[in-house]
Amino acid sequence: MPSTGQKLMIHNPYYYPDWSLQAVLNSRKILNLISVSPTITYCTDDVAEMPSETRRCLLPNERDLMYFKDYNFHNCMVECRMNMTIKMCNCTPFVYVHSGVNVTDVKICTLRDVKCLREHQKLLMSDSLGQNATSNDFTVLEKVTGRACGCLPDCESTEYYAESSAGVLNFKYIRSNAYTDVKITNDSSILNVYFNDLVGIKNRMDVKFDWHTLLGKR
Fold it and tell me: Rg of the chain over CA atoms, in angstroms?
């Protein structure tokens, strides 16, 4: 089957891979350099002690997901899309079936279910499962899950951001001893992935004002 290249997804290893993650297309006959920059966000003890309703974010151990061990916003949205598809079309796309899902309990969508999936595509592909939906879809969403699945952002997370730089691959400049046991053809491409720097960005989520600070300014 003819191919235009490969799709490379850059993401946290604990995120379930789907269409919403950052992706880089690696075409044929090119040299692709992809630099990765990590960004870590953590919260202090003062933030962790606050109720989740106040800080409006969740720690990995504060909510149980059905198909994933630890909570994160991305997997919560994936699970919500899966459950919404089951409720609306009585099936789930094969991309949402992984080792944590009992396939005997879940029907895999077939070509006969494409019509239903297309009818609800706008809702199911929404970033917030309701933001880009119609009023009728949002009513269904409220009845099924209640307030956009309840997926709150992560209080602590590790994200990876990639930048790609590509050029035409000239095969006459390739040294054969640089790629041991690799068969290079005229349709090949070379992909190099590396960290952009020795350090990354670290963000801290902290309490800026508390009642001591407010009383002290009066």
Answer: 22
